[in-house]
Specification:
By secondary structure, the chain is of the alpha+beta class. A 10-stranded antiparallel beta barrel has the order 1-2-3-4-5-6-7-8-9-10. β2 and β3 form a beta hairpin. The longest helix has 20 residues.
Length: 345
Amino acid sequence: MRDKLIIALFLASFVRLSAQTQTDLSRLSQDDRYSIEMACSNEKLNLGPAAYHRCLQKQLDALAGTGSPDLSGLSQDDRYSIEMACSNEKLNLGPAAYHRCLQKQLDALAGTGSPDLSGLSQDDRYSIEMACSNEKLNLGPAAYHRCIAKQLRALAGGPDLGQSADSQRSTAFLSQQQTFPSRSTATDASRSPGSDSELKRLDYFVGIWTLKGTINTSLLGPGGKFTGTHRNEWGTDRLSLVSHWDEQRRNGVDSGQAVYRYDSDQKTYKYHGVDSTGESEDSTGTVEGKTWIWTSNPTMENGETVKAHFTMSEVSSTSYSFRFEIAQTDGEWTTVMEGNAVKTK
């Protein structure tokens, strides 16, 4: 009888201890919960549950007494710009830092308005929006509005106030898109038979996707776990899909932007991406059924060029699996990275 009592007391203590180690996130908004989980993903994936729960609790303590600024009165464009500009805080620093970033962006935006582009030709509007894409995605709507106003002044023959370093980086991103046809060519291509339906296949990727996976040690570097978020939206011309990504890996955070298009002449999809260091990547894609295959020939740090393909398999309308493989000349294919993506919005 005494032994049974001791066992019962031990089990009760164990249950209480287990309950205490579980951090309750149920009262958080979906956005704040996602932000906390992403900010603590390194602890979860690499350090274990004890460190993960300590990180969650630290984030909850920092969040206590704060609230998310109200973005409901913003235009869709301005809201998207603010959320993108604060994505590093959301994904890496947690909801308290994310809220502070949102408020800072709102304060900067107060009293300003978006310049009117309605009188421009479609070509000029597209050019201005692309030239200011770095401001929109990385600096926020106030900087984006200033960039647009500057572009309008230049278009009207106003004084040239010089190009900022951020605008220069944005221009560099655009100048690297030489693998794509010109916009006028793409417009003509979009009217060719069958190209509309092919372009529409990219609709699958529109939205916000959360990625999780494993990187294997390879020619490209050391292995480890990784997480990421890809935000994809149609460009204003509806002829290109614009993607902005943030990924957390063992050796740090990677971010960048990319453009997807359909080339009706070659009957293939084209991808051009540039990361935060300025390194670019170009791939050619095909799709058969629910499987996408993107091929490229990246160059290693030692100067060797390898073959690569990135396979994406649509599991459902809100999830896909992916696998990245490389092969040296006449060599076997080696899996570098694989994982899954889930559409969250």
